[in-house]
Amino acid sequence: MIVKLLLLVSDLSAGGIQRQFVELLKGLRGKSICPRVVLFSREVHYDDIERLGVKTYFLDRRIKKDPTVFLKLYNICKEFRPDIIHSWDSMSSVYAVPSAKLLRIKFINFMIQDAPQPAAVTFSESIRSKITFPFSDVILANSRAGLRSYNAPPERSRFVHNGFDLTRVNRVFGTNGVRSRFAIETPHVVGMVARFHIGKDYESYIASATRILERRDDVTFLAVGDGSTLAECRETVSPAFGERIKFLGNQRDVESIVNIFDVGVLLTNPNFHGEGISNSIMEYMALGKPVVATRGGGTAEIVDDGKTGFVVEPRNVEVIAEKIELLLDDPGLAKSMGIAGKERLFNNFGLSKMMESFVELYEEILCPNNGFGGSV
């Protein structure tokens, strides 16, 4: 039996959700599944989708909330007749509901890809969850914490942890070439890979870097990503440290850059965001780097505090700086944490494990006697 699967996502910009979306498409090759893709924007950072040869529909929106998209999507569903609609963000989930219900198509609502404190769930996401949850056959998240954050009904809830394509670590460039490209001369490198957004705590990252650089000159701090708060963050860096705190913007060869890190950092502002299962953390772990990350959300589901890295309290600059320096000064500890993290990733967060979970879910939802149980 071939399962006809229609995957919906807002865009394929340089983000964690989009990365996982592409990883799923890659993993579906060779499976008894026929996927098609609907995009609501022509912004495509990940060009893998073209190489995969998956039929893709672009539903351009004339305005932000374009009601004509509902009809366009309905027509696609009527022609393709998918067995399952699988949405990957809240906007896509809203657009999916009428077609799924009118055409009696099973609907997997994967809008939960973060895990904020319940009070930090945005008004728009809260409204979209209330609109879509009652019409969803499965409410999916990438972490247990996410289901709790959105108070998803247990009887229809599932989580599938993000998966990492382990072959990506085989495509890294030499460290000397990367260092030369970004003019890095210090023996140590610390990095944070994240979009510049109010939910990512670059403020604490830069403050921690500054504190460390006031004491030593043997480390360079990298910020990899782009976004709305980039210019503001640049302005907070003292001219004295301009050559030691570098902003690299969006980069396609992220793995090669992470490969030169001594420590991988991911800090989050819990007032605005909570991580699900972070792609950045998985990249750090895949390349054997110890992690320093903010407590909260799904981070505790992937980082084993004290064994694969350190989980720190939000916005505690002193402790963040302390943990980074500890790892810089104790290469044996850093190496052992990196090895443990790599093993943990390979055993629990590989792409094949994620794919098995998705395929099992697709089979289960199409079984007449599925009977979902709780998973929170």
Characterize the largest beta sheet: strand count, sense, and whether it forms a barrel. Answer: 7 strands, parallel
Helical proportion? 25-40%
- Quaternary arrangement of the chains shown? single chain
Number of strands: 13
Describe the structure.
This protein is α/β, with parallel strands linked by helices and 376 residues long. The protein contains 14 helices and 13 strands. It has helices spanning 16-27, 48-52, 68-80, 90-102, 123-132, 144-149, 175-181, 202-213, 230-235, 254-258, 279-286, 317-329, 331-348, 351-366; strands spanning 3-9, 33-39, 56-58, 84-87, 106-112, 138-141, 157-159, 188-193, 219-224, 245-249, 263-266, 291-294, 309-312. Helix 8 packs across helix 12. The chain is elongated, with a radius of gyration of 21 Å.
Salient structural properties:
single chain, 376 residues, alpha/beta, 7-stranded parallel beta sheet, 6-stranded parallel beta sheet, elongated, disordered C terminus
